[in-house]
Amino acid sequence: MAKGHRSHDKRLRNENKDTRPSAKVSYARVSVTKACFVLDAIRGKDVQTALAIVEYNPRYGSSVIEKLLKSAIANAENNNGMKKEDLYVAECYANKGPTMKRVHPRAQGRAYRIEKRTSHITIVLDEK
């Protein structure tokens, strides 16, 4: 195959692909800053400790992240054949999603805007 051919380019792209188990939730109804409080707490921890942290964290974002973390663990066990005891949270981050704009009526015919922010949250696991 000639260099620059589309199948050659695709093969090169797939060689550099990250094979670590991960999970992603898109359009989560939690703002990036609120999600990052929980993500900062679990970054770098092993999965048992991370699950304990999100389970007993009172923030709303922790319930979303707990479900996502369990999904990432299941992906690692089923797709990659890894053991749960050897896993840790290698990367976790939240990116900004689209903002839903709503209007709240105020006095004298005015209207205030309410911004309901969303985020895209990603968790990447790795073996110790």
From TrEMBL:
The keyword Ribonucleoprotein applies. CDD domains: Ribosomal_L22. Keywords: Ribonucleoprotein, Ribosomal protein, RNA-binding, rRNA-binding. Signal peptide: none annotated. It comes from the Bacteria. Pfam families: Ribosomal_L22. Residues 1-11 have a biased composition (Basic residues). Part of the 50S ribosomal subunit. Belongs to the universal ribosomal protein uL22 family. The globular domain of the protein is located near the polypeptide exit tunnel on the outside of the subunit, while an extended beta-hairpin is found that lines the wall of the exit tunnel in the center of the 70S ribosome. This protein binds specifically to 23S rRNA; its binding is stimulated by other ribosomal proteins, e.g., L4, L17, and L20. It is important during the early stages of 50S assembly. It makes multiple contacts with different domains of the 23S rRNA in the assembled 50S subunit and ribosome. This is Large ribosomal subunit protein uL22. It comes from Coprococcus eutactus.
